[in-house]
UniProtKB/TrEMBL annotation:
Keywords: Hydrolase, Lipid degradation, Lipid metabolism. The active site is at residues 55, 180. This is PNPLA domain-containing protein. The keyword Kinase does not apply. A motif (DGA/G) lies at residues 180-182. It comes from the Bacteria. It comes from Oceaniferula spumae. GO terms for molecular function: hydrolase activity. PANTHER family: NEUROPATHY TARGET ESTERASE SWS (PTHR14226:SF29), NEUROPATHY TARGET ESTERASE/SWISS CHEESE D.MELANOGASTER (PTHR14226).
Length: 289
């Protein structure tokens, strides 16, 4: 995929009048930027009827769909308790087991994150969302397939979509195991290609600024490996799907936000900066002028 794409640019008027669906692409700790993007859409008069996402995209898509928007959505992603919910004291025991003894595949179980999301999100079930119809992208390792989940326990499937081994362990839900949706479907939007209720599909993806351009070697860390694999799968899927969507008469806008790359722990100011960057980038986008 080229570094920046806005396919078939539209006007504010047509976007406001159109039936819009939004897919939020997976991105390591990208929920700050995704939230800024969603709020910028809303402030420009665009209310997505349907949303989907994988990993961090699933988190923000779920928050918006469940009823959080504007300041409430911003406070949700900037709340330091959200990041802390993905930290567990047991990583001190799990870490050596996972990386030293090859026992298990995640140093974080995810239970605290599920509990936090159950406390803070307005609804408990995916099918009960208020603002938009929701789809959460996951990788079902029990069935060995990618899936888009439209019903079930909201908090559990959000964490399942974020379960990137070896950081977060696979999540067991109703007897099946799930991993990060971004591994197999970074930006789920195929479900809208032949959907008569949708006119325009907007895909939001987050890229690093400056870009991560590193010489590959045996010392390259696993996060760079994830990123490379994610890009290969997502770019090829998106290209094929865009072609199908255009053939079906859909308008597709791929909007990119370039943010500073986050570390394993993101400072409050860094979080605010990434949120604001995404907000401003859509506000000033040629897609809405």
């Amino acid at each position: 995929m080229p570094p920046h794409i806005n396919e078939q640019p539209s006007t504010v008027g047509s976007l406001n009048e159109a039936k819009v669906a939004v897919a939020l692409e997976s991105s390591f700790l990208g929920f700050f930027a995704h939230a800024g993007f969603i709020n910028s859409l809303l402030d420009s008069g665009i209310r997505p009827l349907k949303v989907s996402g994988s990993s961090s995209g699933a988190l923000v898509a779920s928050a918006y769909a469940s009823g959080l928007e504007h300041e409430a959505l911003k406070e949700f992603v900037l709340d330091r308790k959200l990041q802390r919910a993905f930290r567990e004291w047991r990583i001190l025991l799990r870490g050596p087991a996972v990386f030293g003894a090859y026992l298990g595949h995640g140093i974080i179980a995810g239970h605290r994150a599920v509990a936090h999301l159950r406390r803070t999100l307005p609804v408990d079930r995916i099918e009960k969302t208020r603002n938009a119809h929701l789809g959460i992208g996951v990788t079902n390792v029990t069935r060995q397939e990618r899936q888009l989940i439209h019903e079930g326990d909201l908090a559990s499937f959000i964490v399942a979509s974020c379960a990137a081994a070896p950081i977060i362990s696979s999540q067991e839900i109703d007897g099946e195991y799930y991993l990060d949706g971004g591994f197999t479907d970074g930006a789920p939007f195929e479900q809208w290609i032949h959907d008569d209720e949708i006119d325009i599909i907007i895909i939001h993806r987050i890229i690093c600024n400056p870009p991560r351009v590193k010489k590959w070697s045996r010392f390259t860390n696993f996060i760079s490996c994830w990123s490379a694999l994610h890009n290969v799968v997502t770019n090829e899927l998106n290209q094929v799907r865009r072609e199908k969507a255009e053939a079906a008469g859909k308008k597709v806008i791929v909007h990119e936000t370039a943010t500073r790359s986050p570390g394993l722990i993101v400072s409050k100011q860094h979080s605010i900066d990434n949120y604001q960057t995404a907000y401003d980038t859509w506000k000033n986008s040629p897609s809405i002028t």
